[in-house]
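I am still getting used to backbone structure tokens and would like to learn alongside you. To get us started, please write out a protein record for me. Start from the sequence, derive the backbone structure tokens from it, and show both lines together. Once you have written the record down, we can walk along the chain together:
***
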Amino acid sequence: MTKFDEATQAIRVDESTYDVCLDPGYVIGGPLNGGYLLAVILRAVVDASPFEHPVSTSAQFLKSPVPGPARVRIEQLKAGRTAAFTRATLVQDGVAQIESLITTATLGDVEPMYTDKPGYVMPRPEDCAKLPDPRPESNMTLNAQMEMLFDPPTIGWLTGEPSGRPESRAYFRMAEPQDPDPYVLALAVDSLPPVVFSAGARGWAPTVDLTWHLRALPAPGWLTLIGSGRLVSDGWFDEEVEAWDSQGRLVAQCRQLARVGRR
């Protein structure tokens, strides 16, 4: 079991309740990363499901959970021959923090009938850049859990030269050697700096709603994350992220609505 597996494990209490312990290693300046929190919820849902994989997840972030004990409460809505539908709530101190609807199914290792190609060709990993290590007082523990190599134009905001477009692109893998799986993908699709940074905004950009789809089981190796936005307006922005595996297959799609960062 890797550190990430331990940090996301869910322990069954009864048929509708799982105990979890939210790990302080996945903090971004105070709040816990949303993708990490979804991975925790998905562990519980898949354990209770007759199917193996979370193929569709839609979540509303009501509050910002803090590291420590919490519970996942699940309600089985329907189970058919090919998919099951579950409502799951992350609860901390008796208060609902995240509400989610999750569809589980079992994906096979099959050749796609049709597959698109990435809309952007990434430079080679050796031509990409890492973000500077955060200062200890910044409470950015998430960075230590991942290794990311960024397409240089998308991190111009670091030096006060944002591209002016909502975009973020990087190669991703866990810092501890681990082949990507659906739970790693849940983290990966929410691991990029908010695309609004490249549009010229900064600060914590809280997610309000996030939906992601698992499209295929990823091959070992680097994931390629391509993030973009369509509209930044009136204090809101959207973010779309595609995850491609080392074999060039689209393995996850994510879309979220978030608030523009507050310094």
User: Anything to note?
Assistant: Residues 146 and 174 are 4 Å apart (CA to CA). The chain has one domain: 3-107+124-259.
